[in-house]
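Our consortium's second objective concerns turning raw sequence data into structural hypotheses that experimental partners can test. To show how far this objective has progressed, the report includes one record in full. It was chosen at random from the queue rather than selected for favorable results. The single chain below, 145 residues long, was entered without modification.
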Amino acid sequence: MSAEEESGLAAPTTENASGYGLTMTLVAAVLLALAYYGMLAIDGPSELGGAVPEPFYFLGIAFLFVLELLNSRSRGVVGLARAVAFTAAYGALFVLAVEGGAYLWENPEAALEGYVGATVLAVALVASALAYVAYLAVLEYDRDG
């Protein structure tokens, strides 16, 4: 018996991945890259809520919550908990990404100078993919355990 089989952990397979999950991973990578610039904006010249009025952030976050709640395969408490977790993660990324997009609109050199934007996007893509694989591993462990 291998160490993976003994511990109950196994690497996720391609059958575990869904089109929705892969799409959300790519969306998360773009949001994460823009969120990086959002953090630069908030730490520097801007304040949170400077890009768009705050009610629009709440509208976007509400949309994310409803999208996940209605798209969830789970119902009841599990579906609600998943929607809340999804909304917290993607909502924070959404708010920071909007701020980052506005910052880059006004300061494109922040991403273009030395092609740092490509590096930021590459790191964000790897981080999002690792998070998705970890999520699949937890689901697989939960299903088997």
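The partners drew two points from this record. The chain is about 75% helix and 0% strand. Residues 77-106 form the longest helix (30 residues). Both points have been shared with the crystallography group to help prioritize constructs.
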